[in-house]
Specification:
Low-confidence stretches: none
Helix content: 40-55%
Distance between the termini: 123 Å
Radius of gyration: 51 Å
Structural class: alpha/beta
CATH superfamily of the largest domain: Hypothetical protein af1403, domain 2
CATH class of the largest domain: Alpha Beta
Strand order of the largest sheet: 1-2-3-5-4
Number of domains: 4
């Protein structure tokens, strides 16, 4: 065993190592994952930095934490700037940190949260500013990579649901450098071009947070918010969320889901139209039934207007005759009395007096007769207008013009369309006078007529 020149105490050895390390590594950058993170009452951060093969203790004093933009926790990948030192009490080397930054996914996630919070405070995520999608768009723009699976999935589902839609594909980069700039410029260009686009679909397939990062850029969020055309964001898979999803007018979990949200299938449209037709037919039937009831009520209340008119005319003629007879009798009596009184008082010729009174009475009688005739004429006009009104409201007037009311036998259900019956069906045709029982031999469709 060789002779030893010097024997070190533990403290001396530790001090030597401490001096060498601090001199050799004054300030260095170290990358690693935080583990065993703890914060004592002093506020200092104590933890370990580790990788797959080793670990080192680290301390970040409270005085240097002012510029830290995140809360450290176990599992975060970080870049640390510090100096190597030795904690003499335990003989362990450690890092005394001056600065700490997130690395990789952690940095991106932090940037995502910060932008999300800022845009949310500005109101870009508010439901009140979201635009409604058209019920049945005729022209759709898809902003995506033309070679990706997203556009194929979107078109496959869209055309399976509804083929009569024009789709314009605007190719852009969907990841990497320059992707966010292309996406934002394309969205702005579509709005300015006045191409008749009614909906914009912004889409791509799934990927990592780095792959989807173009859709987390502020310029893309601003372009979506500024779009006058509604925007659907369909980025990534169902579990992926981007800033574009929050700003867009509608978020779809996948490109296929975007096609399903954009338009209902033709079968759904046909079912809804059939329901509308049924409701309309029922409403018209109820309206016609109410009109028929009103007409029947008026007919029962007023009776036949022609009989009423004849009755009124006879009553007026009878009243006129009685009035003329009464006037003549009254005038004769007054003339006789005036003649007798004239002879007694003045010795006048009663015939001359009577002639004067008779002339005035004749004029008065003509005037009264004219008034009576005018009254009769106005009553006749009123009766004629009432008769015309009843005639117009009567369904029999329609039948009198050559139309017929077809009903099934024996149910007496009203027939409105040829498809309600089949060859051999028994029908009753109600005419203006009488009815015909018939049987269908052949059905003519509209296009055959």
């Amino acid at each position: 065993m060789p002779a030893l020149e010097k024997i070190y105490t533990v403290s001396e050895l530790t001090g030597e190592i401490k001096g060498l390390l601090e001199e050799e590594f004054p300030f260095i950058w170290v990358e690693g994952e935080i583990s065993n993170f703890r914060v004592p009452p002093s506020g200092h951060f104590y933890f370990s930095l580790k990788d797959a093969g080793s670990q080192v203790r680290a301390v970040f004093f409270r005085s240097g934490q002012g510029g830290l933009g995140f809360v450290p926790e176990d599992g975060l990948q970080v870049l640390c700037l510090g100096r190597v030192s030795v904690y003499s009490a335990r003989g362990e080397y450690q890092l005394i940190l001056e600065r700490m930054e997130l690395k990789g996914w952690g940095a991106l996630q932090l940037a995502f949260e910060r932008l999300k919070e800022r845009l949310q405070q500005e109101g870009l995520f508010e439901a009140a500013r979201k635009k409604k999608l058209p019920v049945l768009p005729r022209k759709v723009a898809v902003v995506t990579s033309p070679s990706g699976a997203a556009i194929r999935d979107f078109l496959r589902i869209l055309y399976r649901r509804f083929r009569n839609i024009q789709v314009c594909v605007f190719p852009v980069l969907v990841q990497g450098e320059g992707a966010s700039r292309e996406i934002a410029e394309t969205l702005t260009g579509i709005n300015r071009a006045n191409l008749g686009i009614e909906v914009i679909v912004l889409t791509r397939g799934g990927g990592s947070i780095e792959d989807l990062w173009a859709f987390n850029e502020e310029r893309v969020a601003r372009a979506i918010a500024a779009s006058a055309i509604p925007v659907i964001s369909a980025v990534g898979h169902e579990v992926d969320f981007t800033i574009a999803d929050f700003v867009a007018d509608l978020r779809a979990s996948t490109p296929s889901a975007a096609a399903e949200l954009l338009i209902r299938s033709q079968a759904e449209w046909a079912g809804e139209l059939e329901a509308f037709q049924k409701d309309l037919r029922q409403a018209l039937a109820r309206k016609l039934e109410r009109l028929n009831e009103k007409t029947d009520h008026l007919r029962r209340r007023l009776g036949d207007p022609r009989r009423r008119w004849v009755e009124m005319s006879l009553r007026l003629d009878d009243a006129a005759a009685r009035l003329r007879s009464a006037l003549n009798n009254n005038l004769g009596q007054k003339a006789h009395r005036l003649g007798v009184a004239g002879e007694r008082l003045w010795g006048l010729n009663p015939r001359e007096r009577l002639a004067g009174h008779s002339a005035r009475l004749a004029a008065l009688r003509i005037q009264l007769q004219d008034r009576i005739q005018n009254r009769f004429h106005h009553r006749e006009l009123d009766l004629e207008r009432l008769s015309q009104t009843l005639q117009a409201l009567s369904p029999w007037a329609v039948l009198a013009r050559g139309y017929a009311l077809a009903r099934t036998l024996p149910e007496l259900t009203v027939i409105k369309e040829a498809r309600q019956v089949s060859p051999g069906s028994a029908l009753r045709l109600q005419l203006s006078r009488g009815a015909l029982d018939c049987r269908v031999e052949e059905i003519w469709k509209e296009e055959d007529s």
